[in-house]
Amino acid sequence: MEQLSPRRREILRRVVEEHVATGQPVGSKVLVERAGMHVSSSTVRSELAELEALGLLTHPHTSAGRVPTESGYRVYAEELVGAIDGRPEPVIVDVAAVRQELEAALRNTTDMLSQATRLLALVSAPALQTASVRHVDVLQLQPRAVIVVVITSTGGVTKRVLELENAVDPGLVDWARTYLEEQVVGLRLGSATLRRRLEDPRLAPSERAFLARLRTAFVDAVADDGPQLFVGGAAGLLGEARGAELEACHHLLEVLERRAAVLDLLSEALDPRRTVVRVGPEVDGGQLHDVSYVGASYGIAHRSLGAVALLGPLRMDYEKAIRAVRAAAFELSRLVEDVYEDD
């Protein structure tokens, strides 16, 4: 906000951090004596009144102290995102021990995030279309019917029976099985490379036409499964909540029951270029109040594969949350580079 001088920004930051640490309203005396403000109490009181007039702080009941509003948290968190730059230090999340198992790494990341921050941790796994083909089989059931089986690197299995207009040469079926095993296994579902192998102009017209019919099995394999979602910290979500925070946490638990809503929340709030912070009505289209969201995407060059996020009450440790999410996203991006081929 343009009205904020450097001193007001510093006072807002100290009020947020002190309130996050203690859960109590913060007065001018606390800021001068405990938070280390090098100005008089009267000056701090004047600045607190100005911050309250701007809607960034509020005055609960008859207390002499202030607490941040949703707008105050938002300004604080946005400034924090801009201040925390450069390569993140992986001090919160270490997935090296489970690098060979993507699902274990994602689950481990979720548990580590929730334990480190005491917040609700969410990690979405790559959608099936980013997985690769592990095995393909083509079998003839009847003269005009074939079955195609596609098994992916994530363990997904798609079986499709295709009814054809004319009887199929058994030799063409055998050729297709061998060709797909040699040319398609290992390629990413939905990739341009896989599509080119199915449409190779060097193939005979009858071979290309047959592969065109089989291609529907690969398209269906993408549609058969959606992103996985890993959740950590739900059991302890209510443990440290106070007052109005309890209702907000109950709303969060209700959202968790709707998997699609959580996945939408993860995908819609992400900016692939930076960590994203959403406060209060900005979260879930205004459906959630008294809740904050910190999220980041992870993936490989030019493509996001999933998201890492923390959800919790307004009174959260934003710096820890931002650093934890950035570190997790960075480590998962390193991990998936070894798992997924960007073809």
Please tell me about this protein's structure.
With 343 residues, this protein is α+β, with helices and mostly antiparallel strands. It is 44% helix and 18% strand. The protein has eleven helices and ten strands. The strands form three sheets. It has a five-stranded antiparallel β-sheet with strand order 7-3-10-9-8, with helices on both faces. A hairpin with a 2-residue loop joins β4 and β5 (145-152). α1 (6-22) crosses α3 and α5 packs antiparallel against α11 (318-339). The radius of gyration is 27 Å and the shape is elongated. The two termini are 44 Å apart.
Describe the structure in brief:
This protein is of the alpha+beta class. It has helices at residues 6-22, 28-33, 41-53, 70-83, 102-117, 170-183, 192-198, 205-223, 244-256, 259-268, 318-339, and strands at residues 57-58, 67-68, 120-124, 133-142, 145-152, 157-163, 229-232, 276-279, 291-300, 303-313.
Mean pLDDT: 80
Looking at the structure, the CATH topology of the largest domain is: Beta-Lactamase
User: Uncertain runs with pLDDT below 50, 5 residues or more?
Assistant: 91-100
Query: Which range best describes the helical content: under 10%, 10-25%, 25-40%, 40-55%, 55-70% or over 70%?
Result: 40-55%
SSE layout:
Layout: H1 6-22, H2 28-33, H3 41-53, E1 57-58, E2 67-68, H4 70-83, H5 102-117, E3 120-124, E4 133-142, E5 145-152, E6 157-163, H6 170-183, H7 192-198, H8 205-223, E7 229-232, H9 244-256, H10 259-268, E8 276-279, E9 291-300, E10 303-313, H11 318-339
Antiparallel strand pairs: 1-2, 3-7, 3-10, 4-5, 5-6, 8-9, 9-10
Helix pairs in contact: 1-3, 5-11
